[in-house]
Amino acid sequence: MDSTIVSIIIKVALAGGLMFFLYKDARARDYSWFMWTFAPVIILFTSSLGSSLFLLALILVMYMATRPKGEIRVCPHCGKKVHYILAFCPFCRKSVKKECLRCHDTVDWDAERCPHCGSMNLTKF
Ligand SMILES: [Zn+2]
Ligand SMILES: [Zn+2]
């Protein structure tokens, strides 16, 4: 096989792997997933395999440094992964938080009582 074809195959495989990771992670965090998913495509236009590896590492480092921090939870409605800070699931658009009916603060979905005022009077969606 031609070495250019081999390097194109390697580039496509690398870009595809990174795109898959960025899509899942950025969607769960509701963080410009469209832009991040397609960012690795630029490595297909690089001249050498070395520079494409460098670009891939750069995209990954930039993504990790700028993405919203914090844990990923599972949406109680659709089972997809959702960043803990979001009040609504980016996939099924349902609420993933409860509201405390006494102090009107948002409360985690699995909480029994409000962590702010201790009330057990929470909304159930
Ligand atoms: Zn959901
Ligand atoms: Zn409360």
Shape: elongated
The number of helices is 3
**Which molecules are bound besides the chains?**
zinc ion
Decide which structural class fits the backbone.
mainly alpha
Tally of structural domains: 2
Strand order of the largest sheet: 1-2
Tell me the total number of β-strands. 4
- The mean pLDDT is 93
**How is the main sheet built?**
2 strands, antiparallel
Q: In angstroms, what is the radius of gyration?
A: 20 Å
Residues in helices, as a percent range: 40-55%
What's the order of the H and E elements?
A: HHHEEEE
- For the record, give the distance between the C-alpha atoms at the N and C termini, rounded to a whole number: 59 Å
What portion of the residues fall into strands of 2 or more residues? 5-15%
> Which stretches of 5+ consecutive residues score pLDDT under 50?
none
Description:
- The chain is mainly alpha-helical.
- The protein has two domains: 3-66, no CATH class; 70-125, no CATH class.
- It is built from three helices and four strands; from the N terminus they run αααββββ.
- A two-stranded antiparallel ribbon has the order 1-2.
- The structure holds zinc ion (2 copies).
- One zinc ion binds at residues 100, 102-103, 105, 114, 116-117, 119.
